Amino acid sequence: MVKENNHYRQVVKITDESFDPQQLHAYNLYISYGRDRVRVGVVDTDRNKFISLEDYQVSHIYTPLQGAQVFNEVFSGHPYVFSPDWHQIKLAVNNHNFTFIPDTLFEADAAADYLSLNCDFDADHEKIFTYKHTSIEAVNIFSADKYLTQIWERQLPGKELKYLHLTCPLIASLLHYGERTSEKRLYAYVQNKSLCLLIMQEGKLEFCNLFQCSTPEDFLYFFVLVMQEQKLNPEHDRVTLWGDLEHDSALFTLLRSYIRNVQFGSRPPDVSYSYKIEDLFQHHYLDVFGMHFC
Q1: CA angle 137, 145, 68 (to 5 degrees)
Q2: pLDDT at 24
Q3: Residue 290 carries which DSSP code?
Q4: Among 57, 64, 63, 50, which Cα is nearest to 19's?
Q5: Count of domains for the chain
């Protein structure tokens, strides 16, 4: 059983009866890692089914080193997270250090230069990763704290780990839904203190950015700002939401007062979910479920 401390609190733990700790070689492990939230999902690859989901709230984390140390402390006691037996492990980091480059222009040796144009990249404390979005012909360049990557290198030496950025599963999910329209469509992923806004048109990514937010009014400001800049009409254009908000939340109520056609999204299709996961809201955990399509 995972212990709790003054930094981490488990808020969701779902395990399907079919989960077998002796069969990890047939399972994929997906982890979404952020300063205020860590989520763990498990997929049975033989049945193409999510069979486990855990969600942890994180607080009082002020530095990347502290966050990595607490992550290591908590999950070192987990019965299987640091097991070498997984079929595949994917970890998505949630930070603002990312950018996109058309794959025709991308040069691997220049990845640090591309990223430095968009954010304050610290080569001493961060490691660069890339992910190619084949469907949109773009490369996502991002960084992860070396403190975090070193934990995995120590815990699972020699085990290949696929790093992603939070935006990778979000984009992969939107592409997987297969919604193609000549109209611009705005999609949003809402978290406790951040907002990811994406715009798709004709199956192509037109806009993607993360914004830091503290109040419902902050979230609304960025919704309105991006809609204005992208020439979207709050009276007519549809906005689809995923993430950590509820139907009766102050933010959703505020959004509906300014955006007429706002709705919650659903889970990605073409993968099944334990009946215990089916009981959760459809728009929750896209950061974890979307990793299945990366």
Answers
A1: 130
A2: 98
A3: G
A4: 50
A5: 1
Identify whether 124 is part of a domain: no
The answer as to whether 71 is a domain residue is no
Confirm whether 29 is domain-assigned: no
Residue whose entry in the numeric block shows the structure tokens 């984390």: 61
191 Cβ neighbours under 8 A, 6+ residues apart: 34, 36, 37, 94, 243, 244
CATH number of the domain enclosing 248: 3.30.420.260
DSSP string for residues in 177-235:
HT---SS-EEEEEE-SSEEEEEEEETTEEEEEEEEE-SSHHHHHHHHHHHHHHTT--TT
Q: pTM score, two decimals?
A: 0.95
Residue 290, pLDDT score:
98
**What DSSP element (H or E) covers 144?**
strand 138-145
Distance CA 50, CA 41 (A): 7
Can you give the residue range of the structural domain that contains 258?
179-264
Q: Within the chain, which residues score under 50 in pLDDT? A: 1
Does 186 reside within a domain?
yes
φ, ψ dihedrals at 171, nearest 5°:
-65, -45
What are the φ and ψ backbone dihedral angles of 104, each rounded to 5 degrees? -70, -20
User: Which residue type is seen at 1?
Assistant: M
Yes or no: say if 241 and 190 are a contact pair by the CB < 8 Å rule.
Answer: yes
* Contact by Cβ (8 Å): 128, 146: no
